[in-house]
Amino acid sequence: MIDLDRVSKTYEKGLPAVDEISLHVDKGEFVFVVGDSGSGKTTLIKLLLKELEPTHGIITVNGHVLNTMKHRAIPAYRRDIGVVFQDFRLLGEMNVYENVAFAQHVVGVSNRVIRHRVPETLREVGLAEKYKNLPRQLSGGEQQRVAIARAIVNRPKILLADEPTGNLDPHNSYEIMKLLEEINEQGTTVLVVTHNKELVNQFKKRVITMRRGSIAHDVEEGGYIEA
Ligand code: ADP
Ligand code: MG
Asked: Would you say the pTM of this structure is higher than 0.85?
């Protein structure tokens, strides 16, 4: 599903942000990626989205070798990957329904499918009653649920989340992580970047620890990391 073979990324100046990483994630896995600020986690996500090109190494995702992928194939490739960020990135003038519907509209999904699929997805994330609210009329946890709905509404094979609980309190962080776990249990491969070691330890999943661009540890399900 995700395969990195000795992948490095060096920005214009300085040391490699990602340094010779080899990594395999199977279909259906749930993986945490942890590590200090600056250890290369976001760079790894951007490489997987083909927002950045590796300096060295081969990246294969969903059977596509990203290194040789044509420009015109990138939008279709990204459609199979849902992404969630720390800061939600919702459209402030659109309500909950419209934020999720828009993600379908821009990729050419028919209105008939949108009318069916948006409410269904909002139910999955527990926001069915708030479909008319604007983002500013929601709590942080609810806003992140909208962002997750938007990320999964087109049924991606992979969901990438970069510090999805970074702006949330412990209770909402736990609830969001539960939701990501449920999405994984429905068959989506999920990769979650997070700082929150206590939360990681509550979930008993595979944990990849990055340190200065390299993988320092990769422990299987049930792995525990020192707080
Ligand atoms: P993390 O997400 O783990 O905090 P990043 O992937 O954002 O780490 O950053 C890894 C390293 O790459 C850091 O040293 C950071 O300063 C550097 N870096 C990130 N983005 C850029 C950029 N656009 N240009 C130059 N250096 C960058
Ligand atoms: Mg980051």
From this structure: yes
With CA atoms as reference, report the closest residue to 175 among 185, 186, 164. Answer: 164
Residues sharing a CB contact under 8 Å with residue 206, sequence separation 6 or more, in sequence order: 29, 30, 31, 32, 218, 219, 220, 221, 223
CA of 213 to the centre of ligand 1 (A): 9
Q: Is 37 in the pocket of ligand 1 (CB under 6 A)?
A: yes
Q: How much distance in Å is there from the Cα of 170 to the middle of ligand 2? A: 19
Strand pairing report for 18-25 and 2-9: antiparallel
Report the distance separating Cα 186 and Cα 172, nearest Å: 21
Give the three-state DSSP class for 159.
strand
Q: Is 43 in the pocket of ligand 1 (CB under 6 A)?
A: yes
Closest CA to 175 of 207, 148, 213: 148
> What does the pLDDT look like over 18-40, one tens digit per residue?
999 999 999 999 999 999 999 99
Can you tell me the distance from the alpha carbon of 44 to that of 4, in angstroms, rounded to the nearest whole number?
A: 10
Side chain identity at residue 42, one-letter code? T
